[in-house]
Amino acid sequence: MNMKEIMAMAPEAEPARQKYFMELAKASVAKIAEEKGRPLTCFISTFGCQMNARDSEKLLGILQEIGYVEGTDEKSDFVLYNTCTVRENANLKVYGRLGYLNGVKRKNPDMMIALCGCMMQEPQVVEKIKKSYRHVDIIFGTHNIFKLAELIFARLNSKKMVVDIWEGTDAIVEDLPIERKYPFKSGVNIMFGCNNFCSYCIVPYVRGRERSRNPEDIVKEIEGLVADGVVEVMLLGQNVNSYGKTLKDPISFAELLRRVEQIEGLERIRFMTSHPKDLSDELIEVMKDSKKICKHFHLPLQSGSSEILKVMNRRYTKERYLELVDKLRAAVPDIALTTDIIVGFPGETEEDFQETLDVVRKARYDSAFTFIYSKRTGTPAAAMENQVPEDVVKDRFDRLLKEVQDIAAEVILRDEHTVQKVLVEEIDSHEPGFVTGRLSNNTVVHFKGDASLIGKIVEVSLDEAKGFYFMGSLVKEG
Length: 478
Ligand code: 5AD
Ligand code: SF4
Description:
Elements: H1 3-9, H2 16-36, E1 41-46, H3 50-65, E2 69-70, E3 78-83, H4 88-107, E4 112-117, H5 123-132, E5 138-140, H6 148-156, E6 162-164, E7 185-189, E8 191-192, H7 203-207, E9 211-212, H8 215-227, E10 232-236, H9 253-261, E11 268-272, H10 281-289, E12 296-298, H11 306-311, H12 318-331, E13 336-343, H13 350-363, E14 367-372, H14 390-411, E15 419-427, E16 434-439, E17 444-448, E18 457-466, E19 469-476
Parallel strand pairs: 1-2, 1-3, 3-4, 4-5, 5-6, 7-10, 10-11, 12-13, 13-14, 17-19
Antiparallel strand pairs: 8-9, 15-16, 15-18, 16-17, 18-19
The chain binds 5'-deoxyadenosine (5AD) and iron/sulfur cluster.
């Protein structure tokens, strides 16, 4: 068959179309491997959030299906960067790595370099790569990662860079292969995109409008994961609190959690990320009654100043935020709270910053991700004139970090000397003979143990708090 016939034979509907291209790509990869006398290797480098991490598992699933084996570094035959653009430094890192790959590819001209993810949804980025990074083979975006096999097949049959970026889509393609990083825990996408347009944030532009998966598909996926040994799931979305609103038969996030709770064999449920404006009393009720939802809530604050929150288009005030914190703590007394905070948003004054510190002191977070405001082209905040000078931002950032760390070191003492259930995740990377696990509230604990414990939920005595983690000892297995 020639290319024209091959393309004409391709099914229109998904996932059948991708299965067709996976078979074709598999044959091509097998042929190259035979010529080389060794299997072809692939390497994925993931930048950014949990959503990207989950996307990378899907991408690896497809690569393995078509015959690549996972390599250990960027000297592999297929190198893929799954990019993030939420802050500028993530972009700069990608350009740096691409420069390095140019040299690697000169030594291995058959190597393929692919780029995907949020950064690729920005037209000026794609232009720059087309012009200055000609050694890149494939560029795709956030809406069509399921098409990887088709894109690889296209590149193998053409000499040109393959660029396929979609502006947006409603399509959610189910039932493609996934290669999970951990056998015992998994992310599960429940929705894609974001409708909030916080004025600093580029996500709605690169991830598109909010789309929820059907609850039946989500439950089916989790049941499959549990049958495969998963005990903990993390439900993923940019704004999980508005899950289900746009479905044909709308359901709430709280209701979805109730259904997931019913899944036998599933032990722990986490979710990320919540938006305070959509946090319902119903959700708090469900958390209170649940035996499986972890005692951890990530509730991004962004700023403690109601004035700044307004300009950020966050649609809540400092008071409303603190009210939510009180409600959560009243319902689930030992809940761990974490947050995201941006310093140096345009127009932020010292008084505004003091309001942020005030919330940090009142909410007493277990931990907080603190970010220096990064100007993202195309967002409303980027055009604001009153940008804060760099040295002022840096000084505020340092003060915030100190406050956050001091409080976290006190808060963690709440659990010291208690015995808690811990999901063992991996061999400790620092201490030989130790393993690392997580409490329900997401705090990390290291204790003596071996690989046989990985994936099990065990009881651990939290002997000593060390700033933001514990050293413990195993009390009871299983
Ligand atoms: N600058 C700095 N931080 C940002 N975030 C999102 N956009 C920006 C930006 N332009 C942070 C927010 C968000 C987290 C994922 O990244 O705090 O919650
Ligand atoms: Fe960005 Fe706001 Fe959407 Fe979060 S809720 S992804 S910060 S626009």
